[in-house]
Every structure is written in structure tokens, then in C-alpha cells.
Design goal:
The chain is an alpha+beta fold. Among the domains are: about 1-80, H-NOX domain, CATH 3.90.1520; about 415-605, Nucleotide cyclase, GGDEF domain (Alpha-Beta Plaits, 2-Layer Sandwich); about 670-890, Trypsin-like serine proteases (Thrombin, subunit H), CATH 2.40.10. A hairpin with a 4-residue loop joins strand 20 and strand 21 (about 690-695). This is Soluble guanylate cyclase 89Db-like isoform X1.
């Protein structure tokens, strides 16, 4: 529906109930729109949701509220001047009822996407009428009744009594709802006028032959009850291009295409009921049929539309009225052609003397009158071209995303965005006071044979691809690969104080993954790593193939650390060691090692290893927790019930750098929720049988209608690996009430069957400590929600990175005071832009912990709009519910992180 209908509701609700009531209605109806645009379309259910919300507030029925909304619309459009159009339809209210479809027909030129209902009278008497209402919308019966009440009272000073005689859905054809009304009102004046018009003249006129009538209307046609053509005017036959016998007894749909009224089938009953509505028919000319039949087997070389001009070169639009002739038991179509100009007249093969001798047809052609029907054809073709343009833009966006991926693989995203904004490559050169650089070399290759060399290439590709997947997890930038050498850096171009820790963590992960990597060639590969920290200069170098490069002694020294390292070891300089926490890492000194560097400087080197990160050496989860927190001030959590044959928080595929599209294999715990086969929410798999989601995604819904799907990335088709489950039971937090600020918005679903978490599906990790402050951390939200406030939900799984805001920043947002409780936190940007959106509700918000695996710390809960300034997203704080979650898992074990397995 167009925004004008919702504008009318907003205006009069604010006028009669106040601004606060309107805001509460928006929140309760889950409406994210604060302002409605007159010519923008919105979902039809938005009106019924607002009606249900208002009915709950004022205690009235939804039907009465819908009647109120209908009256609001009439009061609203009367102020815009549309009342004059209604008054012009006739002197009596019955005249208006018979011309509603004509009014809608004219309004379609202002509102081309309007899906207008159809109304016609089936019986008229002095006490009222029987009206049939047909529409594609369900639930708007009482809305129409409110409109009729207000129009009769305001414009015709008439009181109505409306009763519903019957209603039905799923009618064959294009309409899905039909309601028959009995409308009682004083209709005596209208009947008296009609009786006067039907009074026979004092002198009876002589009969008129049908041939004479067709001479008056040379483009007319006579149609019988079987919808076959009994007769046609001379000019219609000439335009058809054949003899009179070739058109007689043809079915009307073989000769004409119904253009108006829209949305109905061309049947005898519809024509009789809609006798007061103007009809427009497009003639299917005989030469068009021959041309199409001759080209049935000819392959088309173009999928676009014919751009040689409008269809006027061959088609003729006829506009007129269908009148029933009792003597013939047939309908005559009294019409004239719609022609814009003399040029168009000649293109049709017509001349001025072919037009009706009466009326203004000839004068209008000479004046170049723009007929509405022809304008509509032009609009439809423009709309089709607009669709082609949208498809071209979508294709352009896909190629742009691919080019972004290629660009971000060569240059860091922050630097690439500056270059795309017009910055000079020289301006990207910066001096960094302290960064950490890593060099890694693949050892012990044999180049003796061609076959061996090819095996080495495939193995190097497998190893370096594995390395690439780890870089983003630890905020490390891959600089380049040269031969068997892999170079990475942290602290540039994105500055961070933890660059040495990031490089040390990723180096240990490189060793771990190489040991467990199964190469296609079967080769055993070892690596040696060198790390150094210090100042450096970095910037974009090159024009044809630009690269982001690092310069300085720090790079040279890190390279020497690698060349003097040992296979399976991480070699660090004393400068790098000084930046690392010795409580976290196990460091062994190698003493003095001679390194070939400038000025023959001696470097004190150490071999780095972290025993606490080796799985076999772990004794308990309590000991591991000391890595992240101070052992003196931190109280270790209770040892949970964990499974020993699975891990959580580890994805199987890296995200697309710089893009928004991701994969369920990177977040294999994400669950999509469908209600009556329509996607509406998401959740996170936390055990083999349980899904964590938002309470508002479940409260009030029949669990039998909800379907859960795992391992399905693209909602347009079901993946072959997709897993479908139903709901066995639902546990909603006992203190949740979605009409009370969404506090305690958390729920647990128990599935009807467990899933295997050792395959493509894994569980999400939950936080282990309630005392962690995530303020300032960059978190990642995942979901299939809308890509914009006015965009549809996404078919592909998408991610967005959002900073977690402090309580002070959240309080500065535009939400009402006390709406953000201690069980919630904000994430996003106060300036707007990026945010979760409708459809993401219940999905996870992740952070990377020290070990690189993902922890779900928040549940996407609510917000005002999507990406609006001053309105960041609001999330359920999971750390406040860890004990609640554990108590409701029915002793089901949880998969631990890979670094905390027993």
C-alpha cells in the first residue's frame, strides 16, 4: 500500500491520542518507520498490525479500529482535494458506488503501483444497494466500511447501515477476497430520477437496425453470451486486416486484449456487472498474429525489449462502454480509438475520416491530446526498462564486489578505501613507531624432478591458503608471499598496541595447523618463523600492480630472525620479547646469536613456545583461564558439563575480506527460523539439541509452525547439506515481556532431534567469565535480515562489524530513559550507517577471544530502524544469563573451545 494511507493513520492517531501513544503503537507493531512517504509503498500487514496494537491499548475490537482508520483516510484525503473527484462522480451516493472503479482507474496514473479493489452493485432499490467488493488484500473489509461511512456522511450527508451478507477467499482468478455487503440508506431520490429517465416518450421512436448503429460506431463490436463476436464495424474490420467472416464467431480474447479494468477476467458476468465502468481493449491485429506464428520456431537473439518505439506502430487501443441490448441478448462495445497525434494515426494505417463522425475524436487528434490509455502503455514500457536497469545495476554490484575482493587482497581495506576516495598513493605512506613483522619459510623441499616441483606448488598453495585463513582472526595483515617465504605484519596499517601479541599468537597457530595439515601430495612440511618488533614505514608502491609494502630495519631484522630459526620453532628478537607477557608465553633463551645485519649488531634471540596452548598439557579449564585474566583477581568459573569429542566457536571457511556476504561454514552454528515457510528470525546452536535465540521470536507463536534450518547459506534454495529440525519444547525467560522494553529477551529451543556437530555443523561458544568488559571491542553480527531499512531480507548470509559501546555512549543515544536495562548493551555507530536490521532478531553477536575462536556475547534484540543516526542496535547481554542457560540445558553437555578440551 502507498504511504498516504499510513500517513492518514499517523496524523489522526497523533491528533486524537497524542505523540506518545503513536510511538508506543509503532513499537508494539514492530514498525521501524517513523515517517511515511506519500508515494512510497509499504507492506499491507503494517496497517493491520497498527490496528491490533491500538485495539489492545483502547480496549476496542480490531474491526472497530480498522473502521476508524478508514474514516481517517477519507478525512485526510479531503484536505488534499480528492473530495472534489468523488463529488464529481454524481449527485447521489449510489452514483459514487457505481463509479468507484473509474476513480481508481484515474488514480493509477498518480499511483502506478496501486493494487486497487473492485466494487460493483448487483441490486439497487429505494432502501439501498447490494455491493460486491473484491480485493487481493485480506483484513480490509472493515477499513472499506469506515471509508463508506465517512464518504456518505461528509460528502453526501447520508447515514448508512452496512451488513456483511457473505464473504469468501481463494476465488478462482486473480482476486483472493470477495465480500458482499447490504448497504441501507435513503435511495429514493436516485430511484425516482432513474424512473423518470425510463419513462417512455410520448412519441415512440422508430426501430434502429444494428448495421446503422455500427455505422455510428465504426470501431464497435457485438459480443454474445459465449463471448464470441457477432458483428463488427467497418473500420474495425479494416484495422483487423481481414474479411468480416474472418472475425465473426471468434472468441473475444482472440481479437482483443483487456487492458482496463485491471485484475479481472474477460467474462460475460464481469462485463455485465461492470457496465458502468469504462473499458479499454487492445486489438490484436491479424498481421500481428501472422508475424508471431511465422516466428514461433525462430530463436530470439535478444532478451531485452524492442526499443524501436511504442507499440503504437501496430496496436490500436479502443476505449468505450459495454452496453447490454435486450433485443439481441448481446453486448455492444461502443468505443473509439485512442490516438495521440496525426503521426500515430498514420502509423496505425488510419485516417481522420475513419474516426467516429460524432464526438470530439477528430478534434482531439488534431490537438495532439494525450490519452490516458496510451500514457499507461508508455509507463509500462518505461517500467520494464527500469526493471532491466535494476538488473544491470545488480550485475554491476556483483562485479564491483568481485573487484573489491581482488583489490583488498592486494591492499588493506582502509588504505584501498582512501585511494578510491581520491587520495594520492603517496599520501598512504606512513611512519609507524612500533609494529611487529613475521617471516615464515617452508623448509626441506626437493626440486630435483619436474613431478616433485609440481607437488611442491600444490602443497605450498594448500599451506599458504591455510595461513591466509588465520590472518584475520588475529588482526594480522598478510603482506606478500615470495617463493617459500610468507610475510605478515600487525600494527599497520591499522594501529594496535597488541601487535606483538597478535603476531605471537598467529605464529603458534601456524605451527599447530601445519602439523595437522594433510597435503594432497603427501609431503611432510615444516616451517620456521622469525619475529621482530620496531619502527617501520609502509605505503602503496607501484602503478600497474600496486602493493602495500613495508620498509626499514625492522623488516630486515625479522627476515634474519627467520633465516636463523630452526624448523618447528618461532624465533623472536629481544625487542619483540619485551612486548610480550611472560605470564602468558613460555620463552626459552638461546643466548647470543650472530645475525648478519647493519653495523654487525648482535641481537639477543629467544625461541618462543606457549605450553599453555598445547591441548595435551592442559590439566583443567581453571588453569587455562589464567591466560586471559590475572590469577589473583579472577575467580575461575565452575567446571561445566563439556563434551570431549567436539569443539565450539571454530568456523570452516573464512569470510570475504571487505565484503558483506559470508557463509554458514564460517559460522556453522547459525540457525535460520521459518514460520509457516517464511523466514523471520535466527538463532545459535549451543548444544547438539539446543538453540539460543531471542524470546520475542517465540512468544505468542505456535511452535508447531516453526521450522529450524542449519547449514543452509542461500535461502533461495535448500542446500544439499542443510539440516531441518522441528521444535520439541521452548523455554522463554520467565521475566520476559516484549511490551515492557524487551528486557530478558532470551529463550532456549530444544529441537526434536539432536544434530551431529562433528560434520559441517558446530556449536557456538558462550563466554566463560561474567566480569569481562567488552566496551570498545569490535563485534560481528551475522544474519539474513534486511540489507537496509527499506530493503527486503537477504537471501545470502551476511555479516557486519560493529563496535561495542559503553553504557555512557548508549545513554547518549536517542532511546527513552531507562529503556536500556542492565541486561542489555548497545553496539553500532551513533552516526548511523552499519547495523543489524529486521530479520536478524535472535541471531548472534560475536567477539574473538584471545585464542582466536568466536564467542557469542549478545543476542540481536531490538532497535529503532536500521542504521539510523543516534539509534544503535540493542543486544541481550548473555553474560548475565550464563547460569540461567546452564540450568535449562537439562544436563546436555556443551562443546568446549579447541584450546580448552579435556
Amino acid at each position: 500500500m502507498y504511504g498516504m494511507l499510513l500517513e492518514s493513520v499517523q496524523h489522526f492517531v497523533q491528533l486524537e491520542y497524542g505523540e506518545d501513544m503513536w510511538l508506543q503503537l509503532l513499537e508494539r507493531a514492530d514498525c521501524k518507520h517513523m515517517v511515511f512517504n506519500t508515494r512510497q509503498t509499504y507492506p499491507d500487514e503494517l496497517m493491520t498490525n497498527l490496528a491490533a496494537a491500538l485495539a489492545e491499548f483502547n480496549g476496542e475490537s480490531v474491526e472497530n479500529v480498522m473502521q476508524f482508520f478508514g474514516k481517517c483516510f477519507v478525512r485526510f484525503f479531503s484536505n488534499l482535494g480528492y473530495a472534489c473527484m468523488i463529488k464529481a462522480t454524481g449527485r447521489y451516493f449510489c452514483d459514487f458506488l457505481q463509479n468507484v472503479d473509474n476513480i481508481h482507474m484515474q488514480m493509477r496514473f498518480t499511483y502506478p503501483k496501486m493494487k486497487s479493489p473492485s466494487m460493483y452493485t448487483t441490486h439497487i432499490d429505494p432502501q439501498g444497494v447490494e455491493l460486491v467488493y473484491r480485493s487481493t488484500r485480506k483484513g480490509f473489509t472493515h477499513y472499506l466500511m469506515g471509508q463508506l461511512f465517512q464518504i456518505a456522511k461528509e460528502l453526501y450527508e447520508t447515514d448508512l447501515v452496512i451488513r456483511v451478507l457473505g464473504s469468501s477467499n481463494n476465488i478462482p482468478g486473480s482476486r483472493s477476497v470477495m465480500v458482499k455487503f447490504r448497504i441501507d440508506f435513503d435511495n429514493r431520490e436516485y430511484i425516482a430520477r432513474n424512473n423518470r429517465m425510463k419513462t417512455p416518450l410520448s412519441r415512440e421512436l422508430a426501430p434502429v437496425s444494428i448495421s446503422f448503429l455500427l455505422r455510428l460506431f465504426p470501431f464497435g463490436a457485438i459480443i454474445d453470451k459465449d463471448m464470441r463476436i457477432l458483428g463488427a464495424g467497418d473500420k474495425l474490420l479494416q484495422a483487423w486486416g481481414g474479411s468480416s467472416s474472418s472475425i465473426l464467431n471468434k472468441h473475444v480474447t482472440d481479437v482483443f486484449k483487456l487492458r482496463r479494468p485491471k485484475g479481472i477476467s474477460f467474462t460475460w458476468g464481469n462485463v455485465i456487472y461492470l457496465h458502468s465502468v469504462m473499458f479499454e481493449l487492445e486489438m490484436i491485429r491479424l498481421n500481428d498474429q501472422n508475424a508471431s506464428s511465422n516466428t514461433v520456431n525462430t530463436p530470439s537473439t535478444s532478451t531485452g525489449l524492442d526499443r524501436r518505439g511504442s507499440q503504437g506502430a501496430r496496436s490500436i487501443l479502443l476505449k468505450g462502454q459495454m452496453r447490454y441490448i435486450e433485443d439481441l441478448k448481446a453486448i455492444i462495445f461502443l468505443c473509439s480509438p485512442l490516438i495521440n497525434s496525426l503521426d500515430e494515426l498514420l502509423n496505425m494505417g488510419l485516417y481522420l475520416n475513419d474516426l467516429n463522425p460524432h464526438g470530439l475524436s477528430r478534434e482531439l487528434v488534431l490537438a495532439g491530446w494525450q490519452h490516458c490509455g496510451r500514457l499507461e502503455m508508455m509507463f509500462e514500457r518505461a517500467e520494464q526498462r527500469s526493471t532491466e536497469l535494476e538488473n544491470s545495476y545488480a550485475l554491476l554490484d556483483r562485479w564491483k564486489n568481485k573487484s573489491d575482493e581482488l583489490l583488498y587482497s592486494m591492499i588493506p581495506q582502509t588504505v584501498a578505501d582512501r585511494l578510491r576516495a581520491g587520495a594520492s598513493p603517496l599520501s598512504t605512506c606512513e611512519s609507524f613507531e612500533s609494529i611487529s613483522v613475521l617471516f615464515c619459510e617452508l623448509c626441506d623441499f626437493d626440486y630435483s624432478t619436474i613431478e616433485g616441483a609440481m607437488d611442491i606448488v600444490s602443497s605450498m598453495n594448500a599451506v599458504f591458503s591455510c595461513f591466509d585463513s588465520l590472518m584475520d582472526e588475529f588482526n594480522v595483515y598478510k603482506v606478500e608471499t615470495v617463493g617459500r617465504i610468507y610475510m605478515a605484519a600487525s600494527g599497520a596499517p591499522d594501529r594496535t598496541e597488541n601487535h606483538a601479541q597478535n603476531i605471537a599468537d598467529v605464529s603458534l597457530q601456524l605451527l599447530k595447523h601445519v602439523r595437522s595439515l594433510k597435503l594432497p601430495s603427501g609431503l611432510d612440511i615444516q616451517i620456521r618463523i622469525g619475529i621482530h618488533s620496531g619502527p617501520a614505514v609502509a605505503g602503496v608502491v607501484g602503478i600497474k600492480v600496486p602493493r602495500y609494502c613495508f620498509f626499514g630495519d625492522t623488516v630486515n631484522t625479522a627476515s634474519r630472525m627467520q633465516t636463523t630459526s630452526l624448523p618447528g620453532r618461532v624465533h623472536i628478537s629481544s625487542d619483540a620479547k619485551a612486548l610480550l607477557s611472560l605470564d602468558r608465553y613460555h620463552v626459552e633463551s638461546r643466548g647470543l646469536v650472530w645475525v648478519k645485519i647493519t653495523k654487525d649488531k648482535e641481537k639477543n634471540l629467544s625461541a618462543l613456545n606457549v605450553t599453555s596452548r598445547e591441548i595435551d598439557n592442559l590439566k583443567s579449564i581453571d588453569e587455562v583461564s589464567y591466560i586471559d585474566f590475572d590469577p589473583i583477581s579472577s575467580i575461575p568459573p565452575k567446571k561445566p558439563n563439556v563434551c570431549n569429542n567436539c569443539v565450539c566457536g571454530i568456523g570452516r571457511k573464512t569470510r570475504i575480506i571487505g565484503g558483506n556476504v559470508t557463509s554458514v561454514y564460517e559460522y556453522p552454528w547459525i540457525v535460520s527460523m521459518f514460520k509457516e515457510n517464511a523466514f523471520y528470525c535466527a538463532g545459535s546452536l549451543i548444544t547438539r539439541k539446543h538453540v539460543l535465540t531471542a524470546a520475542h521470536c517465540l512468544q505468542g507463536f505456535d511452535k508447531r509452525t516453526i521450522k529450524l534450518i542449519l547449514a543452509d547459506n542461500d535461502r533461495t534454495k535448500v542446500d544439499k547439506n542443510a539440516i531441518i529440525r522441528r521444535i520439541k519444547s521452548v523455554i522463554i525467560h520467565e521475566n520476559f515481556n516484549k511490551y515492557s522494553k524487551y528486557n530478558n529477551d532470551i529463550a532456549i529451543i530444544e529441537m526434536d532431534r539432536p544434530v551431529n556437530v562433528n560434520g559441517i555443523v558446530r556449536t557456538a561458544c558462550l563466554p566463560k567469565d561474567k566480569a569481562v568488559d567488552y566496551t570498545g571491542t569490535t563485534a560481528t553480527a551475522v544474519g539474513w535480515g534486511q540489507t537496509g531499512e527499506y530493503e527486503p531480507v537477504s537471501n545470502k548470509l551476511r555479516i557486519v562489524n560493529l563496535p561495542i559501546l559503553s553504557k555512557e555512549e548508549c545513554d547518549q543515544a536517542g532511546y527513552y530513559k531507562h529503556m536500556i536495562t542492565e541486561n542489555m548493551f548497545c553496539a553500532g555507530y551513533l552516526k548511523g550507517e552499519f547495523d543489524a536490521c529486521f530479520g536478524d532478531s535472535g541471531g548472534p553477536l560475536h567477539v574473538k577471544n584471545t585464542f582466536g575462536y568466536m564467542e557469542v556475547i549478545g543476542i540481536i534484540s531490538w532497535g529503532r530502524g536500521c542504521g539510523r543516526p543516534k539509534y544503535p542496535g540493542v543486544y541481550t547481554k548473555i553474560t548475565n544469563y550464563l547460569e540461567w542457560v546452564e540450568d535449562h540445558l537439562h544436563e546436555e553437555c556443551m562443546c568446549p573451545p579447541s584450546s580448552q578440551r579435556y
